[in-house]
Amino acid sequence: MKKTIGIILFIMLVAGGLAACGTSDEASGSSEQDKKVLKMATSADFPPFESRDNEGNFEGFDIDLAHLIAEELGYELDIEDMKFDGLIGALQADRVDMVMSGMSSTDERKKNVDFSTPYHHSGEMFVTTSESAIESLEDLEGKTIGVQLGTIQEEGAETLSEEYGFEVKKVDDAGLIIQELNSNRIDAGYMDKTVATGFIKEQGLIGFDDPTTSSPGMGIAFPKGSEMVTEVNEVLEKLEDEGKIQELEEKWLSDME
């Protein structure tokens, strides 16, 4: 009899333990499902908009702005670093929810993704070494100009090369343009003006503005038809009204003007 009671008690304990484990797993799963994560892609080679600090953490104007947007919408921000020319593909494949990477909202890109209202306007600039005699577009004839793949500067350089007779060399990121320039493998780089100004001050380079173009402005990119565009536009307007975007500009871009 005692043996029978012992067996029954053992079965009850095992069953109770299994039930407890099941409850714990279900709670964990529910918690994960309820957790709102905003997945953002960037190309962290574009200071002062996005780069990494000495510890490998993301930093920059776009990074801070993305955190403010996520906070306003009640999301946890998850950032994925990738090559710039793969960002739109990541949106089209639904790998990420949005892209912030100093991306200009061009008409060509709008065929494949949707954009928020512009949050920053910059322009383009040619950068070269302090010893260079290149001072204008006319001086670029026969020269090699470096650009970053997939950028508005790549498109612009291809167009300008036909008129001013220079060769376009395409590289994976903005930092490589400066490396190529300092190694004398290109004669000048063609870059976003804010980014170019940072490199000029940091490395003693020189440059001049591209007088032929007007940047459409940087926007946040989303998959076609994303409902987040309206939400994010409302947040951008709110942050603008509250002066928070201006605060970020003063923090990250004031030394680049």
UniProtKB/TrEMBL annotation:
The keyword Transmembrane helix does not apply. Residues 37-255 form the Ionotropic glutamate receptor C-terminal domain. It is found in: Cell envelope. GO terms for cellular component: cell envelope; membrane. Pfam families: SBP_bac_3 (PF00497). One of its GO terms (molecular function) is ligand-gated monoatomic ion channel activity. Residues 1-19 form the signal peptide. Keywords: Lipoprotein, Palmitate, Signal. It comes from the Bacteria. Residues 37-256 form the Solute-binding protein family 3/N-terminal domain. SMART domains: PBPb, PBPe. Its main location: other. Belongs to the bacterial solute-binding protein 3 family. PANTHER family: ARGININE-BINDING EXTRACELLULAR PROTEIN ARTP, MEMBRANE-BOUND LYTIC MUREIN TRANSGLYCOSYLASE F. This is ABC transporter substrate-binding protein. It comes from Oceanobacillus jordanicus.
